From TrEMBL:
This is Glycosyltransferase. One of its GO terms (molecular function) is UDP-glucosyltransferase activity. The keyword Ubl conjugation does not apply. The keyword Transferase applies. Keywords: Glycosyltransferase, Transferase. Pfam families: UDPGT. Belongs to the UDP-glycosyltransferase family.
Length: 494
């Protein structure tokens, strides 16, 4: 049984003395920063765009992700039209039920179905209040929460997919069942490049997500199972915009799928500055204030990214030789399959002898950094990134070019898109796989020098995209219009 927080208002929602009908939408996300943050921002955007919409976000707790709770606590304090509801804990999947973290998370989410049904039933049966009109206009599930489509169907609630990755990756997922049938061997063993509708170029199998490169693994089965269910939804909201991914979006629009709504970029520009050590934030900003414009390179590998000791040392030598100022988010590998990387207790043992002394005027090394705030600073001139989609959107928003260093999830495909499809990034690697690849110091040095070159054509294209990423959100911009079309569809037809 789920207890709703006490209601603090039973009056109808009014504006200028006119009573407005309220629409309640409910969201559920995978418990990870890269999934949850854009979903929360989208809920906020929906309410800002049309004040009739109020949101409840159902939270799945995962003990290995305390960072998610810290984020929710801080975000709950600033959200006006969003309520967060923690679902009761369930027994975690037992080790014999899964092989991969994808398997674990998909099962954990699936095990919450009864609680989600009970939460939705409660919301629909309780009297109307500030948030709740007694009806749920839509349930938004994210890319790995497809088991909740069953719950929406049982309760006759329209179900939508919220997709926090690019339209190219959505296109790949929708095409995966076809590829699975067409190519009976491992994709990595096939010597032909793949034709995927959302990509203008053929795609080398080596940039597919690691999970997809092992068809015998449970992660592959889960990817297929999630992908198959996307078409059961009433619409797919993608955190992207027409001007960024025109080819992928037009190919999706031409297919017989649920309608795709590119409403992005939705970004949390305050980022972890809000939910991490304020002292760290202050010291980074003070240091940046003293650097010349576009002189500093940021290296950050996502909320789940870490590199081996030998790779860290190659980066260190490469950075030193490149000679640019730097901020480096350096993290220790996770202790177990389900854990996240941690901030290193000490970097002395990881870095080459004397590196810290030699570079003390050149750069800063931290664990997690307030990435969005750092990218916003005029001193930042380039970004060595793992190519998570939120990071890509943040860098485009601030016009900072990326050098690609993908590590996990769909990042190799994102890197391929940015370099080969869109010409918006510089290639360090497209198909890096931690543990079986090593980027040498000379490559790091060369790439950083290329990235920081102020005359580079990629830099000019990124600056153009910066303007477009802002225009699309303005009234009559493409994302604004897509959001308008979505709200029309969400409004229940009486
Ligand atoms: N992030 C951050 N500091 C870090 C690592 C990550 O602020 O040290 C933020 C980053 O700004 C982005 C999010 O965490 O908003 C990561 O999302 P993304 O999709 O880029 O990658 P993921 O972590 O999901 O792989």
């Amino acid at each position: 049984m789920i207890t709703l927080p006490p209601r603090n208002q039973t009056q109808p929602y009014t504006n200028n003395n006119f009573t407005m009908t309220k629409f309640h939408v409910v969201f559920i996300s995978t418990p990870g920063i890269g999934n949850l943050v854009p979903l929360v921002e989208f809920a906020q955007l929906l309410g800002n765009h049309d004040r009739r919409f109020h949101s409840t976000i159902l939270i799945i707790n995962m003990s290995q992700r305390p960072i998610v709770n810290t984020y929710i606590q801080s975000r709950a304090a600033t959200c006006t039209n969003i309520r967060f509801l923690h679902l009761p804990a369930v027994d975690p999947p037992s080790p014999d039920q899964y092989q991969s973290s994808m398997g674990y998370i998909s099962l954990l989410i699936q095990n919450h179905k009864t609680h989600v049904k009970s939460a939705l039933t409660n919301l629909m049966s309780s009297e109307s209040d500030e948030f709740n009109s007694g009806r749920v206009a839509g349930l938004f599930v994210d890319m790995f929460c497809t088991s909740m489509i069953d719950v929406a169907n049982e309760l006759d609630i329209p179900c939508y997919l919220f997709f926090a990755s690019p339209a190219t990756f959505l296109s790949f997922m929708l095409h995966l069942p076809t590829l699975d049938a067409q190519i009976p061997i491992e994709f990595g063993d096939s010597d032909t490049e793949l034709s995927i509708p959302g990509f203008a170029n053929s795609v080398p199998p080596l940039v597919l997500p690691t999970a997809v490169l092992n068809k015998k693994g449970d992660a592959y089965s889960w990817y297929l199972s999630h992908a198959r269910r996307y078409t059961e939804t009433k619409g797919i909201v993608v955190n992207t915009f027409e001007e960024l991914e025109p080819h992928a979006l037009s190919s999706l629009a031409m297919s017989l799928l649920p309608r795709v709504y590119p409403i992005g970029p939705v970004l949390d520009l305050n980022g972890p500055a809000q939910w991490h050590d304020p002292n760290r934030y202050e010291s980074v900003m003070r240091w940046l204030d003293n650097q010349p414009t576009s002189s500093v390179v940021l290296l950050c590998f996502g909320s789940m990214g870490s590199l081996s000791g030998p790779q860290v040392r190659e980066i260190a030598f490469g950075l030193e030789r490149a000679g640019f100022q730097f901020i480096w988010a350096l993290r220790d590998p996770p202790k177990s399959q389900l854990d996240l990387p941690s901030d290193p207790a000490s970097v002395d043992d990881i870095l080459p002898n004397g590196f810290l002394e030699r570079t003390c005027k050149l750069g800063l090394i931290f664990g997690l950094v307030p990435q969005a705030k750092i990218l916003a600073h005029p001193a930042i001139g380039g970004f060595v990134s793992h190519c998570g989609w939120n990071s890509i959107l943040e860098s485009l928003w601030y016009g900072v070019p990326i050098a690609t260093w993908p590590i996990y999830a769909e990042q190799q495909m994102n890197a391929f898109e940015m370099v080969k499809e869109l010409g918006l990034a510089i290639e360090i690697r497209l198909d890096y796989r931690e543990g079986s690849d090593l980027v040498l110091a000379e490559e790091v040095e060369r790439s950083i020098k290329h990235l920081m070159n102020s005359d580079d054509v990629v830099r000019a294209r990124v600056k153009e995209m910066r303007e477009k990423s802002r225009m699309v959100l303005l009234e009559n911009g493409s994302s604004y219009q897509a959001l308008g079309a979505l709200t029309e569809k969400l409004v229940p037809k009486i």
